[in-house]
Amino acid sequence: VDEPEFAARVADFARTAAVARRFRHSRVALLTPRTAWRMFGPMDMSYDEWDLGSSLGVTLLHLDLEELIAEAEKQDDKAARAELDSHAPAYGKIQAADERMLFSSKVYLAAKAIIDKYGLDAAAAACYPTHFGLVNLASSWLSGEGFHFDPEGDVGSAMLANAMLAIRSNPVVLAEPAH
């Protein structure tokens, strides 16, 4: 029991068990425009992701992106400004319009409300083609809090990133490098 090799094997097993537990008991949401619901086609991976999630024990929720937008519109300007100001020391020069930054802060607050409402462990938002960049700032801020919010609607990546957070609490980035 005191051997370093034994301790290393126990640590490896514990990490593997933590990933499996986090993965199997997770709740992951896909936020899309209502028109995208259940419209499977050549560009839609939802069917495969739902099948993958159900076979692995992940609970997948399909939420209307308009719920996030409506929640953002209800957020108080003062609270959004305070949130924006609290993150300001991490920025260099901000080139986006102040009203856009304020709304992005409201989207972040709205995302947190939806995460709490549905008990989510990860999420993905499909913003293309009507809401470019809607969740980008929220995604960044939430990653710093240990929550993965994929801004490209990739539920599979959100599930995987959530599992990876069981190993490390650092933000997880999954990329598809060009050939």
* Strands in their spatial order, largest beta sheet: 2-1-3-4
Q: What share of residues are in beta strands?
A: 5-15%
Overall outline: globular
Terminal CA distance reads 47 Å
The Cα radius of gyration reads 18 Å
Q: Helical stretch count?
A: 7
How many β-strand stretches?
Answer: 4
- What is the H/E string? HEHEHHHEHEH
Nutshell version of this structure?
This protein has 179 residues and is an alpha/beta fold.
Considering the chains and any ligands shown, give keywords for the structure.
globular; single chain; alpha/beta; 7 helices; four-stranded parallel sheet; 179 residues
Layout of strands and helices, then pairs:
Blueprint: H1 4-24, E1 27-32, H2 46-56, E2 59-64, H3 65-74, H4 77-87, H5 98-118, E3 122-125, H6 136-143, E4 148-150, H7 155-164
Parallel strand pairs: 1-2, 1-3, 3-4
Description:
The chain is 51% helix and 11% strand. The chain is an alpha/beta fold. The longest helix has 21 residues. It is globular.
